[in-house]
Amino acid sequence: MKELSKYKLNKISRNLDFLFNLANNDEINDGLNWYKDANNEALKIANKYNLDVYEVSQVISALSPRNKWAQNLKDADNVCSAFVTGIKPTEIKVCTFHTNKFKAFAILENKVSISKNSLKTYNFVNNIAFLSPGHLTVDIWHLRGCFLNDIKIGSAAIGKIAYEQIKQLTLKKAQNLGFKGFEFQAILWIVTQKYFIAQR
């Protein structure tokens, strides 16, 4: 996906307004608390195993593909526990791909890290670890919301320019509503899933 035109950005802005207006008070409150809760969970794991919260947040992100959130946190705890006690990756199970499990161990071994080139996951890690207001997670559900299109997993890759355009547009809209970017994104994440489930 190349640079988005002003017309497309205006359409995205209207789509996000449409979805936000579908949110009820419970969904807004859940969205406002999602990353705060995630940050608390990452801090708990970090403190439990005397690890850095940024490392733990990277582990959570590495283990997140096709993984439900509650299980994602359990897997992150298990990987961190295994790492500090010297248990090998081959000796534990997680509910995501083998490659992601080995990546999580490599993160804790300081062999790899999630870099700025991994647009979605880098922003996700910074949102969880630091509640960073300058980062924004543009995942598959945010893209579906932006385009009101049930984009299929695997066909949601966007370039750096389009990512930054969507990120800045969303951050600005959040600010205008009195939210931090990650709060607004989390609200939209909840509402967008409900919207597309109702359409199917």
Overview of this structure, please?
The chain has helices spanning 6-20, 25-49, 53-62, 69-85, 98-108, 119-130, 140-147, 160-177, 181-199. The protein has one domain (6-199). With 200 residues, the protein is mainly alpha-helical. Helix content is 68%, strand content 0%. Helix 2 packs across helix 6, helix 3 (53-62) packs antiparallel against helix 5 and helix 4 crosses helix 5 (98-108).
State the gist of this model:
The chain is 68% helix and 0% strand. The protein is mostly helical and 200 residues long.
Keywords:
single chain, 200 residues, mainly alpha, 9 helices, 0% strand
Provide the β-strand percentage band.
under 5%
Rounded average pLDDT: 96
Residue share in helix: 55-70%
The major sheet is characterized as: none
**Could you say which structural class the secondary elements and strand pairing correspond to?**
mainly alpha
H/I helix tally: 9
Number of domains: 1
Output the helix-strand order.
Answer: HHHHHHHHH
Number of strands: 0
Distance between the termini: 26 Å
Molecular shape: globular
Uncertain regions spanning at least 5 consecutive residues? none
- From the alpha-carbon coordinates, what is the Rg to the nearest angstrom? 17 Å
